[in-house]
Backbone:
């Protein structure tokens, strides 16, 4: 199976109220699952409304304080935050923040997100999205070695069983 490796820096972004978002994967126009990365410019901003969806946000660079109603959520590099897409989320940050976003429709897609820091193995037939958080991360896919630089990503379809060995820092999403 041929895998195409891409890097976040190659993706053209679109402006949102708080910065730039780069879509890494979307299953269809009116999506069931969407994977993206966004910058959050210094200052205050309001997150986009995705009412029928669930969301997970992982901070890749710097730190941000989110507000949901009266709740303050301080997130640093590597922290994850899960919330409903209908939640009104505001952000406040002093430095430009880079994040990783997973948005999915829980009625149509069963999703798992894992952060892998170190070594791990996975055997699955599900569709997989792999995002490297660090440079020089390695994976072995069906007995072939790959090295991924920081913010490289790969999508692997669900057409066959996959035996993957990870060594490094990754965000792994698999779904059916």
Residues:
């Amino acid at each position: 199976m041929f895998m195409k490796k891409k890097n976040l820096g190659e993706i053209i972004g679109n402006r949102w109220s708080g910065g730039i978002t780069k879509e890494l994967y979307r299953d269809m126009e009116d999506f069931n699952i969407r994977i993206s990365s966004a910058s959050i410019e210094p200052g205050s901003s309001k997150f986009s409304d995705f009412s029928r969806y669930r969301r997970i946000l992982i901070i890749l660079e710097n730190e941000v304080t989110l507000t949901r109603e009266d709740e303050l959520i301080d997130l640093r590099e590597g922290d994850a935050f899960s919330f409903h897409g209908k939640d009104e989320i505001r952000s406040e940050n002093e430095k430009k923040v880079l994040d990783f976003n997973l948005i999915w429709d829980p009625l149509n897609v069963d999703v798992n997100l894992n952060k892998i820091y170190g070594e791990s193995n996975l055997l699955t037939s599900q569709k997989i999205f792999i995002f490297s958080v660090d440079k020089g991360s390695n994976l072995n896919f069906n007995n072939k070695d790959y090295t991924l630089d920081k913010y490289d990503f790969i999508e692997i379809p669900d057409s066959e069983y996959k035996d993957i060995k990870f060594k490094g820092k990754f965000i792994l999403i698999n779904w059916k």
